[in-house]
Amino acid sequence: MGKAIFILSGAGLSAESGLKTFRAEDGLWEEHRVEDVATPEAFARDPALVQRFYNERRAGVAAAQPNAAHEALARLQRDHGAPVHLVTQNIDDLLERGGARDVIHMHGEVNSALCARCGHRWEAPAVMVVGEVCVACGAPTARPDIVWFGEIPYHMEAIGAALEESDLFVAIGTSGLVYPAAGFRQMAQQHGIATLEINLAASGARFDDVREGAASRLVPDWVEEIIGG
């Protein structure tokens, strides 16, 4: 039996599928800082603007296709002889569409709606509007099911448990320098878990092994090393 693997993925995993990585560019959307359209305060101040931002993200995800890196991770999960925990900071569904299962979305999902009143979740319509009604309680309090700046990421307890039982921590397409994600690498190192970074450019964080280049090339190569032909 192989060793359990914990994989943390970020924007770099989906960039080659055409999804914009705001952090890698100027951090702006239509001259608005991303922080100004991705906070609870922004939603309270201008919900129409925030809904439009996520409507555009939803449309972008719908038009994108999984790339070779998504498909390779699904293959690893399917064919590896031990658990492969896929934790992503991405709000797209490209891992699932690439064949992965049980993906943990720590920052939420753009295709999900959340009722701010009762906490119910459901599949978001392609276009959400101000005052979108909750399908469960009927309140006009629906919002994108996204962890905004200043909010606590989802599934932190499950993520910690998965990491503790793993033998290898791999960060793909993410700097791993910003908390809480940075804490995962540190936790792995404290538990004596080997660490690997696969990134377009090295983040500068301390990993046991660093591989620089496009995820669509490096991830399939790495998966091939793990499970063979």
UniProtKB/TrEMBL annotation:
Gene that this polypeptide is encoded by: cobB
Alphabetical list of PROSITE patterns matching this protein: SIRTUIN (PS50305)
Family: Belongs to the sirtuin family. Class III subfamily.
InterPro entries membership: DHS-like_NAD/FAD-binding_dom (IPR029035), NAD-dep_sirtuin_deacylases (IPR050134), Sirtuin (IPR003000), Sirtuin_cat_small_dom_sf (IPR026591), Sirtuin_class_III (IPR027546), Ssirtuin_cat_dom (IPR026590)
Residue positions binding Zn(2+): 115, 118, 134, 137
Name of the protein: NAD-dependent protein deacylase
Chain sites annotated for binding substrate: 54, 57
EC number: 2.3.1.286
Function summary: NAD-dependent lysine deacetylase and desuccinylase that specifically removes acetyl and succinyl groups on target proteins. Modulates the activities of several proteins which are inactive in their acylated form.
Catalytic residues as annotated in Swiss-Prot or TrEMBL: 107 (proton acceptor)
Record has Metal-binding as a keyword: yes
Cofactor: binding details: Binds 1 zinc ion per subunit.
Keywords noted in UniProt: Cytoplasm, Metal-binding, NAD, Transferase, Zinc
Domains (record comment): 2 residues (Tyr-54 and Arg-57) present in a large hydrophobic pocket are probably involved in substrate specificity. They are important for desuccinylation activity, but dispensable for deacetylation activity.
Superkingdom of the source species: Bacteria
Cofactor(s) demanded: Zn(2+)
Binding positions (NAD(+)): 10-29, 89-92, 173-175, 215
Record-annotated Deacetylase sirtuin-type domain positions: 1-229
Cited HAMAP family: Sirtuin_ClassIII
Annotated compartments: Cytoplasm
Catalyzed chemical reaction(s): N(6)-acetyl-L-lysyl-[protein] + NAD(+) + H2O = 2''-O-acetyl-ADP-D-ribose + nicotinamide + L-lysyl-[protein]; N(6)-succinyl-L-lysyl-[protein] + NAD(+) + H2O = 2''-O-succinyl-ADP-D-ribose + nicotinamide + L-lysyl-[protein]
Pfam families with a match to the protein in the record: SIR2
Source species: Celeribacter arenosi
